[in-house]
Protein 1
Amino acid sequence: MQNFQITTSHPSETLALGKKFGEIVQRGTVILLNGPLGAGKTCFAQGLAAGLGVPKTHPVTSPSYSLMNIHCGRLPLYHFDLYRLSELEDLDELGYDEFAEGSGVAVIEWAERIDLLSEASLEVAIECLDENRRRFTFVAYDDRGRQLLELIAV
Ligand SMILES: Nc1ncnc2c1ncn2[C@@H]1O[C@H](COP(=O)(O)OP(=O)(O)OP(=O)(O)O)[C@@H](O)[C@H]1O
Ligand SMILES: [Mg+2]
């Protein structure tokens, strides 16, 4: 499966959706999260972290000063937020390639700020339909992404 769409009606539903992905996601998966401010990118990433077994004592938040945080779960979770990315070099300095192709799962908020599609397993585009409804469009770009969607969309 290449594409999948689903609408959530409450943050708890977005958390639950992210959690389903986190429970089955494989090592080396790169997930791009796009959508406007307040769309629910961090909320989805929090669900993903829960599904990966990241302890609540180290919660996924919107990093104010860092572009990336590492969380330890069943697999390492590399949570990027590129909102404040000013230079492409910043990403290189972070060692992006190392993390994105590494032994964990990379989830990247504001991925559209730079063109990362060629490296992605899955792109998640979130649209705000109203105050509480969010439409998620998933597009798979590699085998890991396709497998994820096949397992989720049953
Ligand atoms: N169905 C929903 N799913 C997710 N969040 C929702 C939903 N309905 C309402 N919300 C609200 O939308 C906001 C989503 O915030 P979140 O920080 O996850 O967005 P974001 O996309 O990461 O924003 P930013 O671009 O600032 O990082 C929260 O305040 C949450 O309560
Ligand atoms: Mg966010």
Protein 2
Amino acid sequence: MPELRRGLITQKWVIIAPERAMRPSDYRTDGDEALRQPLENCPFCPGHEHMTPPEVYRVSDGKNGWRVRVVPNKYAALTSYPELGRAGVAGFFDRMNGVGAHEVVIETPDHDKELPDLTEDHLKVVVDVYALRLRELMKNGWHRYVLLFKNHGSRAGASLAHPHAQIIATPVVPGDVRARLHVAKDYYDRKERCVFCDMLLQELHEGQRVVAEVDGYVILAPYDSRFPFEIHIYPRYHAHDFTAMNEEQRRGLARVLRQALGALKALLGDPPYNFVLQTAPNPVPRPGKPGYWATLQYDYHWHIEVIPRLTRVAGFEWGTGFYINPMPPEDAARYLREALEQG
Ligand SMILES: [Zn+2]
Ligand SMILES: [Zn+2]
């Protein structure tokens, strides 16, 4: 029987409809024809550095090449601009200048390697670069929120196959992010505890949605999974800010990322997925809003969401904000645990 579940943090409903469930093999996808193109056209391959805008950062390979490069997005959604220009248009619609930043992190010179194929050391460098660029972009007070995300595969919105992540800094805190921040803050106001830490305690106690615990991180199939095999990665320790990780914590994250994405790959082939970092907003002071983020460091808890795009979002989802998920997260977690054990 289908079941409605409400997300603790998102406050949104999902419909878990297991009688439509299929086995992991039914979801398997191998290769992405839509993104196949001659390598000489790939702007992210070594030797093609002239095809991207001038790079803002690189990690050298110790010779003449690079391990990771960061470049501005050629088709930037937002760019730097001297003023915000907030205004009401005709006194009714809100507008502001497209202030922000849009960067691409080219995660490896190797066109055909995906994150789980990289060595742990290389992945650690990738995590270092994510944190470094986020920290750098947050130095700009216009950048109220900085989002790190990854689209892998054409069905997840990627236009290039070469492994890369994107970072977009926005001049407002996006509504969905703000809603989650408020849930965390309200919970803290009532209980003086972090809602995510409490949720992790509960999940680790129950165990059925826990995929793995690795080096201070937990991989979970969330209770309110919107998509088959959706997984979240949480630090087991309380931490509101991704950019504040120390060396050892970044290494732990490299390890857990490799396992989480490796398990998806082992189970599902090469699934298209979105990877989204949920971290604290830029704590710049807000005129007229003293104490706006006063308890942020106690009430919020950063995490990564990995969302395989194996089902399509259609009219019902657009009309309601509910998602229909045919794969119960308890089953997904079991399949992923088995994949890890066999790996
Ligand atoms: Zn390439
Ligand atoms: Zn916490």
